[in-house]
Write a structure and sequence with these properties.
The complex is a heterodimer of chains A (821) and B (226). In chain A, 50% of the residues lie in helices and 14% in strands. With 821 residues, chain A is of the alpha/beta class. Chain A has 4 domains: 3-288, TIM Barrel, CATH 3.20.20; 302-544, Dihydropteroate synthase-like (TIM Barrel), CATH 3.20.20.20; 588-685, Methionine synthase domain (Methyltransferase, Methionine Synthase (B12-binding Domains), Chain A, domain 1, Orthogonal Bundle), CATH 1.10.1240.10; 698-820, 3-Layer(aba) Sandwich (Rossmann fold), CATH 3.40.50.280. Chain B is of the alpha+beta class and 226 residues long. Chain B has a single domain (2-225), classed as NADH Oxidase, CATH 3.40.109.40. Chain B has helices at residues 2-9, 33-39, 56-69, 101-106, 123-132, 136-167, 188-194, 197-200; strands at 22-26, 75-83, 85-86, 92-93, 110-119, 170-172, 204-205, 211-212, 216-225. Chain B has a 5-stranded antiparallel beta sheet. Chain B is globular, with a radius of gyration of 19 Å. The chains are: A alpha/beta (821), B alpha+beta (226). Chains A and B meet through β8, α13, α26 and α27 of A and α1, β1, α3, α5 and α6 of B.
């Protein structure tokens, strides 16, 4: 019988621990257990036969660590073939009369993926794919991905399984005592992602005993529409007479697992510390109980790498600010590949209280697939909010969905066949929650009925791809009332009709409604309130609009969605303070008053005769620096402000830093405050379409290949930017070729290389060699913890800079001659 | 550890049969503010003793870093006490191959060692990522705090090992890590594999042998008769 059919009506009893039993059989710590498939097949077969005899329906082949990182291809294929062969032999020899299956076991590669580690997502997919292909070839009945402690790594393994086999795939994660994966994911987030990608069963194994895993499993049962699996440890380990023993006994274990079977778990076995005795106990429970049917939960969910956001309970806010449309400063950032600016926009919106970030980086002159992929990755490295991938370019959409860590929101499809046929296959493969616009080949229907009809058409088409209503959210399109004063009413009625008649979620880009009108926020916020009252589930909106946020918090409080009005009270208590700060900052008076005391404490920072802006920068006060700059830009030339306030303030901190009167954190805080001032200047100049700086000297900076430390590099970058250099930051772990390429492209007279470890200094030397050959005009300065002047000379660098200020000084010298040329 | 000493001293040891790897988790320990500041580069500070002596803005940022990290750490250690043997060339026999004169010197006169790996978890790295690009000052303070946390965890563990050793008439040597002196970090794969650190502690290695989570430590503690 096929396991997919068998599991429909039956419990599946899994196997128990392998590691402990192998150690008892003589496996030494540090020895690779997979080799035992070939060297000690009789031991493997014996253990697995015992599990089948004890009543296991599924036994995992001894392939947990069988991957291309540990074994070369030939050995890997041999070990996997032997492992599956051993398990099949155990199955054939077993006296058990139950249905029996053999699973290819896949554990983590033991590499942490970017951005926290150095391993590429696609490399992980390729590595898992090898194991999958050998396992399929060897005749596994299913694939069991287990003990995964990182969500992106789990996605890589599942993607590899799906792309390289048609076998059923069970996916199990290892949770810590905080109920989260090591890299932060909650069970709800994992369910959202794994179901979206069509895992056949999901659940938890290892780390904890059945009692301690109860909360995790209950969350799985709440969210999952596929069978839930459980493979706990035999409690917690402790040592007894020099041996590791676990604190739960087989009978107790069976009882605890039985409780969870009653709650709805459909597949159960054991992990570390469990033996065939434990599995017998689980088998007894399974024989005694009736399986609880697996029901569709019909939840509309998106997830990030940490948490899930559910639609339909409370209004969901989607921040619209990552979008170049009509924003000159944002367009400039995209053209200059200034990802940090985009990240800043994301984080600001998160602070303002949005639940999801819309990400649109479409600009005719840029490579959108590449940019969208890189912004998706970078945003997920700094923000734990789910993202809404917003593009009409399906190549860009696929690039982003593939690397996305979680289940993304997809913006958008519409009723056009061509669009649905391009977008739905991507959602089918990678999972997603899709915004569906109620327009089609005939344009936007004028009537409510017309929009309803398009929505129905989209639901039918999505079903052909196995995408249910719960994964669609309808946008009946808000249009400006300045062109047609009936527009808003039709939209509001459409929201109600689509929600009530079709039983689906709705979303709107609310800001459009006020286009062309004065004081737009008033109209937009009122429209938002009215739509919410009609049942709108989500809005793509501007979270910096106080009116919008007012409506959001008041609506939740009025609709019993805010227990004891706590959210509202929290919001209200911040409001007057925010206004007060901006007033105080605007006058500059308070800055002067506190100037003296702040600086005295800061050691030697010169207190005398600073302007308020200088004072804010010296003390590292970002917000005050931005507010003061904004004020002063009203009647001061931007360049004058930079020359007379910002640069002198930076020089003061720089001098104090070199004299050890101020230290690195203060230097950085001041640099950030100066950057906040620059950002105001840039904004103003982008609006006026003038160039930001007189063209600064290009400077390339990177941490060399093999090294993932970049704090030193980031410091130098920030300070160099402050001093007006045109900095291109290539990031960390950068190959020599890439650094040289950028140097040629920018025709940079100076390149800064950073390395923290002795082991990566050779990569630095290599980069310098290649630089001499391909870009002989460029000077190279080096820095980093292990470097010294002597070392720098040895590897052929032009200059050793012990800190950021020294890099500035050296760059200034070069700049003088650069300008002469 | 107690079990180890009991069996070790009663002579039940045959070879390295006593080498069982164990794991434990600690509750957060108080932050050593001065150490944190030292890691952040505030050194030698003219106002180094009490936190209150630090400039107000710096103090506020550091407090924010400490608040941000609250609840984002888990202090875990995997360790294995073992009887120390020496090879014919006089180098210590350990689960990782090496010919380190510095380690040999460090373990001089030792009868046993404890190998351990300690980590404060991946939460710190997540926070550092979040801040180091957009707010490098906060990124630096979080780096410094993470370093202080990892160091405090190691100190706590080593103090425990020392206390138990002393109960049995032994004392401990300063811990010695791959990367110190002539002990290369290329021993890390074997070291971590021996402790099953990837599976049990979530510690993995990059291509250039760096540990992630980055705030992790591996080390050997020598145990000598008093």
């Amino acid at each position: 019988m096929n396991i997919r059919d068998f599991m429909k009506d039956n419990f599946i009893v899994l196997d128990g621990g392998m590691g402990t039993l192998l150690q008892e059989a003589g496996l030494k710590p540090g020895e690779l257990p997979e080799r035992w498939n070939v060297t000690h097949p009789e031991e493997i077969v014996r253990i697995q036969r015992n599990y089948f005899d004890a009543g296991s329906n599924v036994v995992l082949a001894n392939t947990f660590g069988a991957n291309g990182l540990k074994f070369d291809d030939d050995e890997l294929e041999k070990l996997i073939r032997a492992a599956i062969g051993n398990a099949v032999k155990a199955k054939e020899e077993s006296s058990g009369t139950q249905e029996k299956f053999v699973a290819l076991d896949i554990g983590p590669l033991g590499k942490l993926l970017k951005p926290y580690g150095d391993y590429e997502f696609e490399d992980a997919v390729a590595m898992y794919a090898k194991t999958v292909r050998f396992g399929v070839k060897a005749g596994a009945d299913l694939i069991f991905i287990e003990t995964m402690n990182d969500s992106l790594d789990t996605k890589a393994a599942l993607l590899a399984a799906k792309e390289n086999s048609g076998l059923p795939v069970f996916v199990s994660n290892a949770y810590g005592s905080d109920g989260k994966l090591m890299t932060g994911a909650s069970p709800a987030a994992m369910v959202a992602m794994l179901e979206g990608m069509h895992a056949d069963a999901v659940g938890a194994n290892c780390s904890l005993g059945p009692e301690q895993l109860t909360d995790v499993i209950e969350e799985y049962l709440k969210y999952a529409s596929v069978p839930v699996l459980l493979k706990p440890n035999a409690g917690l380990p402790r040592s007894e007479n020099g041996k590791t023993v676990y604190d739960v006994m087989p009978a107790e274990f069976g009882e605890a697992v039985g409780k969870l079977l009653k709650k709805g778990v459909r597949l159960a076995g054991g992990c570390c510390g469990t033996t065939p005795e434990f599995i017998k106990a689980v088998r007894a429970e399974a024989d005694r109980l009736t399986p609880v049917p697996v029901t569709p939960k019909n939840l509309s969910v998106v997830s990030s790498y940490t948490h899930a956001v559910v639609f339909g309970e409370k209004p969901v806010l989607i921040g619209e600010r990552i979008n170049p449309t009509g924003k000159k400063r944002f367009q400039q950032a995209l053209r200059e590949n200034d990802i940090d600016y985009i990240l800043g926009e994301g984080l600001k919106q998160q602070d303002a209280g949005v639940d999801i970030l819309d990400v649109n980086v479409g600009l005719p002159e840029i490579d959108e697939p590449k940019m969208l992929e890189s912004v998706t990755k970078e945003l997920q490295a700094v923000s734990d909010l789910p993202l809404q991938i917003d593009t009409t370019d399906t190549a860009a959409m696929e690039a982003a969905l593939r690397c996305y860590n979680g289940k993304a929101m997809v913006n958008s499809v519409n009723g056009k066949d061509e669009v649905m046929e391009a977008v739905f296959p991507l959602v089918q493969k990678y999972g997603g929650f899709v915004v569906a616009l109620t327009l089609d080949e005939g344009g936007i229907p004028k009537s409510v009925e017309g929009r309803l009809a398009v929505a129905k058409k989209i639901i039918a088409k999505a079903a052909e791809y196995g995408i249910g209503k719960k994964d669609l959210i309808f946008d009946p399109l808000a249009m400006t009332i300045s062109a047609d004063t009936t527009a808003a009413k039709v939209t509001m009625q459409s929201v109600a009709a689509i929600k009530n008649e079709l039983g689906v979620n709705t979303s709107l880009g609310v800001s459009n409604v006020s286009f062309g009108l004065p004081e737009r926020n008033i109209v937009t916020a009122t429209f938002f309130a009215l739509c919410l009252e009609e049942g709108l589930s989500a809005a793509i909106m501007n979270p910096y609009s106080a009116e919008m946020m007012d409506v959001y918090y008041a609506f939740k409080a009025l609709h019993n969605m805010d227990e004891n009005c706590m959210d509202y009270i929290g919001y209200a208590s911040k409001k007057p303070k925010m206004q007060a700060v901006s007033v105080a900052g605007g006058t500059g008076a308070s800055a002067n008053e506190s100037a003296g005391s702040g600086q005295d404490k800061a050691g030697g920072l010169k207190g005398a005769n600073l302007t308020p802006l200088q004072n804010a920068i010296v003390r590292g006060l970002k917000e005050k620096s931005a507010t003061l700059t904004k004020e002063q830009l009203k009647d001061t030339e931007p360049l004058k402000l930079i020359q007379e306030d910002v640069i002198p303030a930076l020089n003061i901190v720089g001098e104090d830093f070199e004299a050890k009167r101020a230290f690195l954190p203060q230097l950085l805080m001041a640099a950030e405050a100066a950057k906040a001032a620059f950002e105001e200047v840039k904004k103003k100049m982008a609006e006026e379409d003038t160039k930001t700086h007189p063209e600064g000297m290009p400077f390339i900076i990177a941490t060399v290949h093999g090294d993932i430390h970049d704090i030193g590099k980031n410091i130098v970058k920030l300070i160099m930017e402050n001093y007006g250099f045109a900095v291109t930051d290539l990031g960390k772990d950068v190959p020599a070729e890439e650094i040289v390429e950028a140097t040629i492209r920018e025709h940079a007279p100076l390149v800064g290389l950073s390395a923290l470890m002795t082991t990566t200094v050779p990569a630095m030397e290599e980069t310098i060699k290649l630089m001499r050959e391909k870009a002989p005009w460029a000077k190279v300065c080096v820095g980093g913890a292990v470097l010294t002047k002597e070392y720098a000379d040895l590897i052929g660098a032009d200059m050793y800079c012990k800190d950021a200020m020294e890099t500035v000084r050296y760059a200034k010298e070069l700049e003088a001659s650069f300008n002469k040329e | 550890m107690e079990t180890f000493f009991n069996e070790f001293l009663s002579g039940t040891d045959a070879g390295n049969e006593l080498s069982v790897v164990r794991y434990k988790e600690y509750a957060p320990m108080p932050v050593n503010f001065r150490e944190m500041m030292r890691y952040a580069g505030v050194y030698p500070a003219p106002y180094a003793d009490r936190p209150d002596d630090y400039p107000e803005e710096l103090r506020a940022e550091a407090d924010k870093a400490i608040r941000l990290l609250e609840g984002q750490t888990s202090f875990r250690v995997g360790y294995c006490p073992m009887v120390l043997k020496w090879d014919e060339e006089g180098y210590p026999v350990l689960p990782f191959k090496q010919h380190s004169d510095n380690l040999k010197k460090n373990l001089h006169d030792c009868e046993a060692v404890v190998l351990f790996a300690a980590t404060i978890g991946a939460g710190t790295d997540r926070l550092i990522h979040r801040y180091e690009k957009t707010e490098p000052g906060m990124g630096l303070l979080l780096q410094a705090l993470g370093a202080e946390r990892a160091e405090s965890l190691c100190n706590l563990f080593c103090t425990e090992v020392k206390a138990i050793s002393e109960k049995y008439g032994y004392t401990t040597h300063p811990r010695f890590s791959p990367g110190f002196g002539d002990l290369p970090i290329t021993v890390q794969p074997e070291f971590l594999q021996f402790l099953d650190a990837s599976r049990r502690l979530g510690i993995t290695l990059t291509e250039s042998y760096l540990m992630s989570p980055s705030k992790s430590v591996t080390a050997v503690i020598g145990i000598e008769k008093m």
